């Protein structure tokens, strides 16, 4: 079995300044830009006490997972991120420097795997998850884990989620420009369905997460609106 036998059956995406199929197509064609900012999805479908302390990246992750529900309750999630909970991590680093102590609750929300863990909790998903850093801003390096699980027969389908949030202003000097917050999810399966797209058929010139999403949108796959 090869990449030609792996299929993206449906996908969802969230970014500031873009809503709905038409605007996502405009973005993929270079006619619309994502915006930078700290705004996050409101995720009002979750309990208010649950969501009140969540970061932008965790809310983004929960939103794009919610958009693809219902899922098989035992479908495993693969979470990809370049920076993870960078805002929460900055806060606890600052707390440790200035106060010499850490609050356990703050630490638990700052670990790299917090977003997929919180999404699993929010929807009672029991399939488990893996959290992977795709080195060099390469989505294909992250997808190796997903393809290995499917091609080896360990899984029949996977929920793949990518998310990166807005950088704290303190990091602005390290980046030539603001990387816009972006999250997307898709179901990768060994079985094709109506409207599914073969993973090998994506015309992807840019190996970044955004480049992958553009190729997926332009392929005509089934987009599930957030």
Identify the notable features of this structure and list them briefly.
Peroxisomal Thiolase, Chain A, domain 1; 16% strand; 226 residues; six-stranded mixed beta sheet; alpha/beta
Would you give an account of this structure?
There is one protein chain. This protein is of the alpha/beta class and 226 residues long. The protein has a single domain, classed as Peroxisomal Thiolase, Chain A, domain 1, CATH 3.40.47. It is built from eight helices and six strands. The protein has helices at residues 20-28, 48-51, 56-66, 86-99, 104-108, 114-123, 139-151, 209-218, and strands spanning 7-15, 76-80, 129-132, 157-164, 182-189, 197-198. Strands 3-2-4-5-1-6 form a six-stranded mixed sheet, sandwiched between helices. α1 crosses α8 and α3 (56-66) crosses α6. The protein is globular and about 55 Å long. The two termini are 33 Å apart. The model has no long low-confidence stretch (mean pLDDT 90).
